[in-house]
Design goal:
Helix content of chain A: 25-40%
CATH superfamily of the largest domain in chain A: Rhodanese-like domain
Number of helices of chain B: 0
Strand order of the largest sheet of chain A: 1-5-4-2-3
Structural class of chain A: alpha/beta
CATH superfamily of chain B: Immunoglobulins
Low-confidence stretches of chain B: none
Oligomer: heterodimer
Structural class of chain B: mainly beta
Shape of chain A: globular
Shape of chain B: globular
Strand content of chain A: 5-15%
CATH class of the largest domain in chain A: Alpha Beta
Mean pLDDT of chain A: 95
CATH architecture of the largest domain in chain A: 3-Layer(aba) Sandwich
Distance between the termini of chain A: 34 Å
Mean pLDDT of chain B: 88
Number of strands of chain A: 10
Helix content of chain B: under 10%
Strand content of chain B: over 45%
Distance between the termini of chain B: 19 Å
Number of strands of chain B: 8
Largest interface: A-B, 28 and 27 residues
Number of domains of chain A: 2
Low-confidence stretches of chain A: none
Number of helices of chain A: 11
Order of helices and strands of chain A: HEHEHEHEHEHEHEHEHEHEH
């Protein structure tokens, strides 16, 4: 696995706009962004209505994921190229989700929607018509997904990486600052977690920093790459970005994304929480 | 939609007495800039949040009290503005790129 296997740039996407083996997929937090304009030929996945169970807090199950991809015209043989807003947070989440269900031919567009827009590249309103497929997913690969008990067991033992902003880590903010701050969970972070904001892995235009910079970033902040690692944020999308950096770009083994993240952990009764900026 | 609306986006529905709001709008030659990306950096310059501007060039953050930097990225331009946020208050910025 190398950077070229998992990351493509805008020129690559433009050269493959009419490649029948490639499906472009836009995934946004602001799900109306796609309607305003998207890369020609791209289909949309809604991270909430398409990828979350409508009742309990969990992912859609395997048959539902299979039906979703079949309906969007995504086949097992397609190379899926994901992009989106928020510096690819939700595209990274979808990337991790595709890998969780066993789709290996998946890539991210470096810089996502933001760099595409800042470079004034073409966006269109036309919704593509794709032929439905019969997609077959694998069982979830939980070697890349952490649950709350994994996090509790990792305190003081494994690397815990809190990728939220310093103000969320310390407890001064409860959510990213584009969201209202009145939230039900307690502020703070998991004891022994180091704070390495996802944003340190990216340039202002949303592209990923180079491998040497990224290795220096995590090792310099105290991550022991020989140990197992769990990344978390508030709802698991920014930590999917960091999971992508560690597991896909740097090839670090045994990295899990905790999608329950702070909205689960900060609501649990009796678990330890640490406040402040850490050591 | 023609022309930027003065002030930030409509804040109805949010209890502003519990928030430290930083908001505003981005214009170029009097016209709203969309898309532009607005980043909120904390007192140490670390990224805290980012939003795209609305069709009318507007943006809003829910910050904590303190000193922040608002950085606007637009095609071919980058502008920084320092701002103070206070609980229960709305800091309004008019930014030209």
């Amino acid at each position: 696995m190398s950077r070229a296997d998992v990351l493509v740039d805008a020129d690559w996407v433009e050269a493959h706009l009419d490649d029948p083996s490639v499906v472009l997929v836009e995934v946004d937090e602001d799900t109306t962004a796609y309607e305003k304009g998207h890369i020609r030929g791209a289909v949309r996945l809604d991270w909430k209505t398409d990828l979350q169970d409508p009742v309990k807090r969990d992912f859609v199950d395997r048959p539902t994921f299979e039906a979703l991809l079949s309906e969007r015209g995504i086949g097992n043989d397609h190379t899926v190229v994901l992009y989106g807003g928020n510096n690819n947070w939700f595209a990274s989440y979808a990337y991790w989700y595709f890998r969780l269900y066993g789709h290996d031919a998946v890539k991210l567009l470096d810089g996502g929607r933001k760099k595409w827009e800042l470079d004034s590249r073409e966006l269109v309103a036309d919704i593509p018509e794709r032929t439905p497929t019969s997609y077959a997913a694998s069982e979830q690969d939980t070697s890349i997904r952490a649950f709350r008990d994994d996090v509790l067991a990792a305190i003081g033992v494994e690397n815990l990486v809190d990728v939220r902003s310093p103000d969320e880590y310390s407890g001064r903010l409860l959510a990213p600052a584009h969201l209202p701050q009145e939230q039900s969970q307690r502020p703070g972070h998991v004891p022994t977690a180091v704070n390495i904001p996802w944003s340190k892995a990216a340039n202002d235009d949303g592209t990923f920093r180079d491998d040497d910079d990224l290795t220096t970033l995590y090792v310099g902040a105290g991550v022991d790459l020989a140990k197992d690692t769990i990344a978390y944020c508030r709802i698991g999308e920014r930590s999917a970005h960091t999971w992508f950096v560690l597991h896909e770009l740097l090839g670090v083994q045994n990295v899990k994304n905790y999608d329950g993240s702070w909205t689960e952990y900060g609501s649990l009764v009796g678990v330890p929480i640490e406040l402040g900026d850490g050591s | 939609m023609c022309g930027a609306v003065a002030g930030g986006p409509d804040i109805s529905g949010v209890d502003a007495t519990k928030e430290a709001v930083i908001q505003g709008f981005v214009t170029k030659g009097g016209d709203p800039v969309s898309p532009a990306y607005v980043r909120l950096l904390d007192g140490s310059g670390e990224f805290t949040a980012e939003v795209p501007t609305s069709a009318t060039g507007q943006f809003r953050f829910f910050a904590a009290p303190g000193t922040w930097t608002v950085r606007v990225l637009a095609p071919g331009a980058s502008v920084d503005r320092a701002v103070r946020a206070e609980l229960g208050e709305v800091a309004d910025l008019a930014i030209t790129v």
